[in-house]
Amino acid sequence: MLSSNATNKRGVSKIGFRILFSNVTDDDRPCEIPRTNYLPADCLNHIFNRLDTRDDCNSFGLTCHEWLQIQNDNQKSLWYGRKLHEYSPEGFPRNDNRCCILKISQERIPMLLCKLLIRFRNLKHLNLSHLPKITGFVAPKPPVYESKVQYLYLNNCNANSDAVWSSMFPWFPRLTCISFRASHITDKGLEVVAKCCLLLETIILSRSHLITDSGIRFLLHNCRKLGSLSIDSCSKITEGIKAIISGGGLEYLSLSALFESAKDGEGSINTKAVVMICKGCPLLKKLDLTNCNEVELEGWEAIGQNCKNLERLTAYGCRKLCDRGLQALCQGCNKLSGLFIDDKNMCSRSALELFERKDCNVLYLLKTDIIRR
């Protein structure tokens, strides 16, 4: 009889345990679970794209080098900072679980950005807004490398020279959308963009006060696919309307003015400019005239007569929009699906009710003060 010292808690002796398994061979043991690197790449891609949370996406690449490569290849968005809710043009993600957010200091980004562009080979969305200086980001363009980035945000980038833009934009030949909102880009910088980014379809230059007519003219002449242009509150663009209508393929145009400028009579588009635009850009689908309080009846009639494809018209703060102007829009713009106005115009209640009866779900009335942008 075995003593208690030679027996474990479950009543099996150590000697008996060794005898019990002494004849077991390797073939009798359970087989190993298949290793993850035996899964084909398309299967791993499918698994990654089915992940729901950002934490899961970020942890995916910690498994092994192969899984890290899958994660890198599926990385579509790279943002500096935490502003995922920032306004973005159509196609730019506002909140993507697979979006990589750079939470590192400005001093370290210059050493990492170029490496990240090479690492994330299929990156499409890049947001570098609110960075005061991008000089350190620029590195010699690697041979045989072209970034696939299509959407680039450079809002509020205020300390970059033309030389910086000249070195930076050859990295991005596939850009289709770029935003320079409130950035200090000049005409020379815009020329670099036009030469390097021939596929450009959308450009936002709102509040870029260094841009002049010359830069707009060069941009429209070289970027033949450009269909969306925002030049609202660009104070140095005075005769750029002629350049705009010379590239009559525009489908979206924003000419809105800052409330403060419009109040002083500066930076506001007038009737003559609207008439020229409507005749020169018959393909317009979206037009923003916010705070353009100098547009009179002739301008609204020109929109109704010429912009037959117009789907959305924003006219907040247009004080001289009247009943006859509203009627011209109603009769001429048959494809209009959204007219956005406030109560600071000359339209009577009866005219608004008549418009609503004819075009249901088209009129959006904002009952507040003139919109302050």
Write a short abstract of this structure:
By secondary structure, the protein is an alpha/beta fold. The protein has 14 helices and twelve strands.
Describe this structure in words.
It holds the Pfam family F-box. This is F-box domain-containing protein. InterPro entries: F-box-like_dom_sf, F-box_dom, Leu-rich_rpt_Cys-con_subtyp, LRR_dom_sf. Residues 39-73 form the F-box domain. It comes from Papaver nudicaule. The protein has helices at 14-20, 41-49, 54-60, 65-73, 109-119, 162-168, 187-196, 213-222, 240-246, 259-263, 271-280, 297-306, 323-332, 349-358; strands at residues 77-80, 99-102, 125-127, 151-153, 177-179, 202-204, 228-230, 252-254, 286-288, 312-314, 338-342, 363-366. The protein is an alpha/beta fold and 373 residues long. Strands 2-1-3-4-5-6-7-8-9-10-11-12 form a 12-stranded parallel β-sheet, covered by helices on one side. Strand 10, helix 13 and strand 11 form a beta-alpha-beta unit. Helix 8 (213-222) packs parallel to helix 9, helix 9 (240-246) packs parallel to helix 11 and helix 11 (271-280) runs parallel beside helix 12 (297-306). The longest helix has 11 residues, at 109-119. The radius of gyration is 30 Å and the shape is globular. The N and C termini lie far apart (93 Å).
